[in-house]
Amino acid sequence: MKGGIAETMRRLSSRKGAGLMAMAFVFFCFEFALRSSVLLGVTALYQRDLFLLYFPLVQTVLHVLSQGALPLRDPSSAFGQPLLGDPSCQILYPPVAIHLLLPPHQAYAWFVSLHSIFGAVGVALLARRFASGSMTAGFVSGFAWLSSGPLQSMATLWHHQAGAAWIPWVLLGVNRVVDRGGLKLQLALGVTFGAQILAGSADMCAMTLLLCVLFVPLRRHLDLWKTWLVSGLVALSLSAGMWLPASELVMYSSRTALPEALRTYWSLHPLSALEIFLPIPVRAFPLLPEWSHVLYEGREPFLGSMFLGVAVLPLVLAAFADAAVPRRVRLASAIGTISAFLIALGKHAAFYSIAVLLVPPLKIFRFPTKAMVPFAVLMCVLAGIGAASIGRSSRARRAAFAGVVLGTLLTLFWFAPFGPLATIFLDVSSSGPLHDFLAQARPHLWFSILLLGVTAAWLRFPAGKVGTTLGLLLLAGHLEQSYERHAGFNPTVPADLLAYRPEALEASKPPDAGRLYVYDYAMIQGRGQKYLGSEDLSGGRSLKGFQPDAANALASYAYLMPLTGAFWGVEYAWDADLRQLFDRRLSELTVGLRRVEETPAFLKLLRISGVSRVAARHDLGFEDFRLLARVNVYYPDEMRIFEVPSPLPRAFLVSGRRRGTGSDLSDLVDSTFNPSTTVLVDGGAVREPQRNFEGSAHLDHRTADRLIVSTEANGDSFLVILEGAMPGWRAWVDGQPAVVERANAIFVGTEIPAGRHTVELRFLPTTAVAGLAVTGLTVLLLLLWFFANASGRARPTTTAPSVQV
Question: Are 518 and 615 in contact (CB under 8 A)?
């Protein structure tokens, strides 16, 4: 390209700092235009996990810090769950500090947008590196990433989105180390990968490592083993405060034994590949019910969009055909994109099973469709390279023209869905829905044809003002098509919704440190039909003037669905193990509790666990409970608030000890087991309860990580604390260390001698202490190295003045 914008871009290329700032500014303006409403705090991004998990977790962390406690444990979820050890909480990830400055919904919006821009700049720099410094490659690849479906899909997947933003930066660091070497670049690579680990997505880290392996020749891997060792040690040391406690958490959770059906849920169906380049999602077709279930497994896809754009296909082919692009880059990109796509197919192909067989640790990861994220990163990088290749390579232009032809054929295929295959996939019993769909889809398909036409014209006139104009028209058309494809893709709700205070809060909030059990009708299939007469569990349909997403969010808040009550200090019991990170025994009992509903065992388990309030939308099975209130919660059925009779207190003494794990419920629900007088323990001494035993326990102090209990008893006893059993609990009786035991399968406790005593329990896992120490020391050493080298560079070189005699 010559003249005009192309000349300006060439000048920016020669000034790296200016070029980088220009790209970041342009990407920021584009991102702000797309998300101005949420960035200004007028609306909030809405998605189930954001409202039921992320925002409550943020509130919990802020509340824990306000207590002066360490953010190691979340007391609001399932009798208490790890915070630092849960990677998705991102406790040590520096960007989450934005929550200290802005309201949760606005802070999250900026968190998402800044990571989108950061990732776009990384993709742009990677494309520039492989395209001989072309600014065109940088801008095209960056915009392709910002407008891509996988990135748009991750706007409500905080840790995956943050982890994805670091993929191009780690790849960039690896390539710089390979080309130039040096301690500075080794440390920079280690810090970059360490930051990605702290972002909390093990999936993105694993896929990044696999891509890095592809982009470095085997011989260079062997030659640079010292470099990889230094960078790896820096990364692991910097992130030790997160991955050490996380490893311990995973070790004791069900993540180590995920069944294949759960691991391969949300696999990408091969037919969904049609969505990559065309703006019409397959699920928009009037599919037959059986095909809808096969493609989307009965619910929304994990990544809602795979769309990259019809113009991306010719550009990618141009990049592969350009001999000026290093062969190792083209080969690595080809292997990377193909492998990522095959892994994303999950259960629909054999490649995923082979990968898991060869690398067993991959079994801890769920949802193979996540592999489309690195696929998208590579495709966007290739699109940028291809845009630069078209202006310099006739071979690249020929390959791009083949892409135009292929894209045109794919688009025309969508114009004729009444072919022989239509009866296999589509519901053609009535032409109405299909006709309506085609009437809406045809304008988008014609626009794709138009973009391909502009691409063909650009290939004919790649240089000069005409080429620049056509290129800019193509970019604008691509962004417009992506905007139309993803309009309303991430639903928003009024920001005021987060300030809503449920009417049922006062009646539902348990007194005296009790816990709340909220019945979840979606956890076990068929329970909605059994108790409510419908499997449609969405709420808020009675709300007038609200969008469905806002209405459903308001209904969830009104019903105090876990963990929304964390905003008001509500602590939950028996909530679902959505992330498979609960202690294995607790995870099993959480499901077991649902299996004994409508039996005396159900009430006994609630009493054992200190549950004093139950919220439900049905009455069956709660005949032995006291009904406290009925509240309208914007569901068809009123919310019932029940009082559990005689729940056990948060801390109490018993004199008897009995062996039993309780993992299969049989020990806990045994009619001969009285939890008021006896405790179930995994091992140690066994004794019958004393007939004349008298003892009391008073909870004097309680924070998320520390409890102080005053006890008094006329004999040896066992102090039961209804806090979730996890590695890391430590106990002291009158200042002397005591042994912490598992009590009643899922709680903690310790032996107490007769008399008056003060017992202190602290949650301070060794892995957390060691990890935080290593992370802190690593940060200190890196800062010292940086300032030492900075002062060395700043110190001017002087020579002694000559003295004349």
Answer: yes
State both tokens at 303. Answer: 């990544």
d(CA 734, CA 579): 38
Q: Where are the alpha helices (DSSP H) in 202-239?
A: 202-214, 218-223, 225-238
DSSP 699-750: EEEE-SSEEEEEEEESS-EEEEEEEE--TTEEEEETTEEE--EEETTTEEEE
Q: In what order do the strands lie in the sheet with 678-681?
A: 651-654, 717-724, 747-752, 741-743, 678-681, 656-659
Q: Is the pTM of the predicted complex or chain greater than 0.70? A: yes
> HEC profile for 255-287?
HHHCCHHHHCCCCCCHHHHHHCCCCCCHHHCCE
Question: Which residues, in sequence order, are CB contacts of 543 under 8 Å at separation 6+?
Answer: 550, 551, 554, 555, 634
Maximum distance among all Cα pairs of the chain, rounded to whole angstroms: 111
Q: What angle do CA 492, 497, 498 make, to 5 degrees?
A: 100
User: Could you tell me whether strands 678-681 and 656-659 are parallel, antiparallel, or unpaired per DSSP bridges?
Assistant: parallel
**pLDDT digit string, tens, across residues 375-407:** 999 999 999 999 999 988 999 999 999 999 999
524-579 tens-digit pLDDT:
888 889 999 888 788 887 777 777 878 888 899 899 999 999 999 999 999 999 88
- Read off the tokens for 63: 């509340």
Alpha-carbon distance values, 467 to 3, 275, 449, 456, 615 (Å): 10, 29, 19, 11, 65
Contact present, 111 and 217 (Cβ < 8 Å): no
